[in-house]
Amino acid sequence: MKTNGSVAIVTGASGGIGVPTVRALVAAGVHLVLAAPASEAPVLERVTAEAIAGGVRAIAVPTDVRKREDVDRLVRATLDEFQTVDVLCNVAGLGSSPSLLDETDARIEDVVNVNLLGCARMMHAVLPHMKAQRRGAIVNIGSVAGEAGVLGIYSASKFGLRGLNDSVRREVRSYGIGVTLIEPGFVKTPLNAAMGDGLPSPDIVANAIVAAIERPRRRVIVPWAYTPAVFVANTFPWFIDLVFGDARIQERMNRDARAERAAAESAT
Predict the structure, then answer these.
(1) Which residue, 113, 123, 202, 265, is the most exposed by fewest CB within 10 angstroms?
(2) DSSP H or E stretch at residue 266
């Protein structure tokens, strides 16, 4: 579908991938309904103002995708303002430690609730409208960690999203609705701050989202350099077991994650 003049809901619009996504959509002429938790309201309002200054219509709707009433309110606000929902970009997401044992029960629930169930709720809410108009595009942000189980509950949530994406794509294919899964590797966001400045810009994810709206695909891996690793993970899972089952690798992964968490906690 054409992006210019279409209407898109973007969850996680205040985040490290969400903000570049908003800018890429503005450049493509997309009118926007921007969603993020109420705690992110100042950033959300700033990004919305930037979108309007860029020449599109845009509104901000504070939304917790863990709550169905918030999701329904977001969709109602979109229809009230624009009378249509053409695009859904499920960008909202939470990370986790590599070790499942490092997480609290509440954090485990939150990761699944946002990364998997939040996407399911959003799709469940917009699809009746897209099916009625027989057009639409949905873009879900997965992860290469959804191809290889190496990051605890985060990997589990992204594995689940991959299955959900496939199922919904097949369910609505005959209605002219495209459903694409974008699977980023490590990109430069606050979630990966400990990995330094050498990571690719999140703009590559934002540009992939715009391209997926215009030309839906089953799966897009960015940066492309992760594609061979995904192939190996799917074709030779024993090799991933061998590498990531090594106690030294696990210790290094978890040491870095624990150090990053300790630094964040001390800063607050």
Answers:
(1) 265
(2) helix 247-267
